[in-house]
Input
Amino acid sequence: MRTIGYVIGLLMVVLGLVWIGQGSGYFPYPASSFMIAQPIWMLWGAILAAAGIVVMAVVSRLRRRG
Output
C-alpha cells in the first residue's frame, strides 16, 4: 500500500511539472493543447506538484513508523 502511495505522489509531481511546462510555453507538446502559454496551468501544476510532495512525505513517515 505504501508503494502505491509513493508512486501516486511521484506521478502527481511529474504531471504537475508537465502542466507548469505547458502553461509557461516551455513544453509545447502536443502543439494543439489548450494548456500551452496559459498561466493558470502553471498555478494548477504547482499546486499538484506540491500535493504530490506532501503525499510522498506522508507515505515516507508511515514507512518509518510501520
Remarks:
- The chain has one domain: 2-65.
- Residues 39-65 form the longest helix (27 residues).
- The chain has two helices and no strands.
